[in-house]
What does this fold into?
Amino acid sequence: MNVAVLFGGPSAEHDVSCASALGVIRALAAGGHRGVAVGITRDGEYRLVPDEVLDKLRDRSGVARAIDDALEVTGPAVELRRGTTALAICAADDPTTVLAECDVVFPALHGPFGEDGVLQGLLESMRVPYVGCGVTASAVGMNKIAMKRAFAAEGVPVTPWVWFDVQRWRTATDPSALVEGLRWPLFVKPASMGSSIGITRVGAPEELAAAVEEALRHDSFVLVEQGVTGREIECGVLGGWTPEASVVGEVAVAGWFDYQQKYLGDADPMTVPAVLPDGISASVRDLALRAFTAIGGWGLARVDFFYDEAAGEVYVNELNTMPGFTAHSMYPKVWAATGISYPQLVSRLVELAFER
It folds into this structure.
């Protein structure tokens, strides 16, 4: 297949997407596919990355930090159009000039614009097959408030939480009343953002205002969750009508798994498979599938959990419909441990795009 890998974009997760895309391009090549890299600038322009740029990066190894092993948005400006088979990548200054045609799109984009149903809607309108969840599931999976509601409707256990918008926050006479009923510490998050961007751990009431203002830099809606003392567990989901769950992995870090530790550290904090009681591993895998079904998922997702060992309870934290695909990312690692290599994984995702 000729696979258009879209990456970059205007969201705060631009750099993470650039790293994910290079991993996908390499895996596609190893699986016998041709990856065509289309970068999206921070202001929304599309650029076709030249093949010679990809050739220089394809076999590079030994980069310690995941965020440094990445593509760059470069090359001539292009437009995306419906082609004779699926997607036509045309010169922006002359749309009649087709620079490449692709059978399917792999949107290696994270965050708003790329992971929230916006790009999926564009591809649907052009009748172009694409990897991952559809419009509705992408939108629900990106918005943590809608996601929590979907989980609650299907009986998927989550930690106690509240939400409010910027208007309620600005006009509240007693801001602390907005989080009444939750036990400290709290985690304050933008409703629609990933990679731990905009998230703050709040240990006392006097820290709440600064945390909310940080979240509001990224979104007009804020989610506040009650903190859990427990282990951070992750599980991959892969499939269509009958999805499967991977083995379970664990993230072991000091504090919580923030952006710094995810992408800017030299150490690999992930253990795959996680050392857990058999019953807990089975519960995590079952809940991962239930969470995926709750949002109407298709193709792939990574589901993140908290395991409270003292209470013996497992909670779903959130679901990511386009998880990281960097060299250090959990999603390809848990599937490799399950018996599906990175190249096999991306090939299966391409197949699922056509099945849907």
Q: What stands out?
A: Residues 2-131 form a domain with the Rossmann fold fold (CATH 3.40.50.20). The two ends are 17 Å apart (CA to CA). The chain has three domains: 2-131, 140-158+230-355, 161-226. The first strand starts at residue 2 and ends at 8.
